[in-house]
Every structure is written in C-alpha cells, then in structure tokens.
Amino acid sequence: MLFAEGALSRGAPDLPPAWREFIRFCSDLKHGEIERLSIQDGLPVLAEITKKKVKFHGRAQPGAAT
Questions:
Q1: Cα–Cα distance for residue pair 38/26, rounded to 1 Å
Q2: Cβ atoms of 36 and 48 closer than 8 Å
Q3: What DSSP designation does 60 have?
Q4: Please, what's the largest Cα pairwise distance for the chain?
Q5: Among 26, 22, 48, CA closest to 35
Q6: How far apart are CA 26 and CA 60, in angstroms?
Q7: Closest Cα to residue 16, out of 50, 39, 32, 48?
Q8: DSSP character for 61?
Q9: pLDDT for 6-62, tens place per residue?
Q10: Taking Cα atoms as reference points, which of 56, 47, 55 lies closest to residue 24?
Q11: pLDDT at 1
C-alpha cells in the first residue's frame, strides 16, 4: 500500500502534493482509462486519457427480433 488508510484525507505529509492530486484525480474519474502517465523525478506530471469504455445494457424493443 502506498500510504496508510485515511492518510490522503489527513493531508499525508509524507506523500508529495503531485501524488495526492493524482490520487484525487483517479478517485474522481470513477471509470475510464489512463493511457499514459508521465513521471518526472519520481512524480506524476501528466495523465493522458484517450478513451472510455461505455457499456450499453439495452432492453429488447417491442416487435424486435430476438
């Protein structure tokens, strides 16, 4: 585990701000893909999102062949 449970909410003084921001970003993303993550000097500097997966849970339409 990168940090103790709850450390992010307490400010995680030993976790650099760039990592805290990246973790928050991932939490807000909920679903999706990060295609590329650029790291410089051990810190995240750029996350590239190029696609998202979308699932369609369709229901059969009346009169449609099944």
A1: 15
A2: yes
A3: P
A4: 61
A5: 48
A6: 35
A7: 39
A8: P
A9: 555 565 678 999 999 999 988 988 877 888 889 999 999 998 876 666 677 877 666
A10: 47
A11: 39
Domain ranges across the chain: 17-48
- Say if residues 48 and 32 touch (Cβ distance below 8 Å): no
Closest CA to 45 of 18, 23, 16: 18
Question: In terms of residues, how long is the chain?
Answer: 66
**What pTM was estimated for this model as a whole?**
0.55
pLDDT computed for residue 6 by the predictor: 59
Q: Can you list the alpha helix ranges (DSSP code H) found in 1-66? A: 17-29
Looking at residue 16, its amino acid is: P
User: Residue 28: helix, strand or coil by DSSP?
Assistant: helix
Ramachandran quadrant class, 20 (left: phi over 0; alpha: psi -120 to 50; beta: rest): alpha
Residue of higher predicted confidence among 39 and 2: 39
